[in-house]
Amino acid sequence: MITDIFKLRPRYGEVDKMGYVYHANYVTYCHQARNELLRKLGLDEVKLEKNNIILPVISFDIQYKKPAHYDELLTIKTLIKSMPKVRFSLEFEIKNEQHELLSKAESTVVFVDDKSRLPKQIPNFIKEILENEFKLPAK
């Protein structure tokens, strides 16, 4: 399993009239966490695009447990539990400073050739990086 931790503080404009982080912002937070994990692996969006790879989201499922609030430090744990083939699934756990679970989410993206716009098998350079990470002891 590959895991990463990403932290952020919701900005004032991300909070609704009830004082809660607006529900759609959780999707953005998970996307940021996914991008940071991929960046740490050397697979940032610039590198993917240079290799004609895009990762469109084909599903996103989220469960809200408790609300997050303005300026509260949130920790987003991103997990890759299995080696992708064509589809690439990531799981997310969002917790507050008291380590309370605020939400859980799962996102599935697909490897797509940016020219043909067709799904494809995991590119070899990505497969090698992920295989090496799966072999490393858990952090």
Number of helical runs? 3
CATH superfamily: Hotdog Thioesterase
With strands numbered from the N-terminus, the spatial order across the biggest sheet is 1-4-5-6-3
Q: Detail the poorly predicted runs.
A: none
How many domain modules?
Answer: 1
- Coarse shape: globular
CATH level 1 name: Alpha Beta
Briefly note the CATH topology name: Thiol Ester Dehydrase, Chain A
> Level of helix content?
10-25%
Overall pLDDT metric = 94
Per DSSP E runs of 2 or more residues, the count of β-strands stands at 7
Q: Could you give the distance between the termini?
A: 10 Å
Radius of gyration: 16 Å
How do the helices and strands follow one another from N- to C-terminus? EHHEEEEEEH
Q: Please tell me the CATH architecture by its name.
A: Roll
Could you say which structural class the secondary elements and strand pairing correspond to? alpha+beta
How would a crystallographer describe the biggest sheet? 5 strands, antiparallel
Strand-residue proportion: 25-35%
What does this molecule look like?
- With 139 residues, this protein is an alpha+beta fold.
- It has a single domain, classed as Thiol Ester Dehydrase, Chain A (Roll), CATH 3.10.129.10.
- It has helices at residues 25-40, 45-50, 124-135; strands spanning 2-8, 53-54, 57-64, 74-80, 87-95, 101-110, 112-113.
- The strands form two sheets. Strands 1-4-5-6-3 form a five-stranded antiparallel sheet. A two-stranded antiparallel ribbon has the order 2-7.
- It starts with a strand and ends with a helix.
- The model has no long low-confidence stretch (mean pLDDT 94).
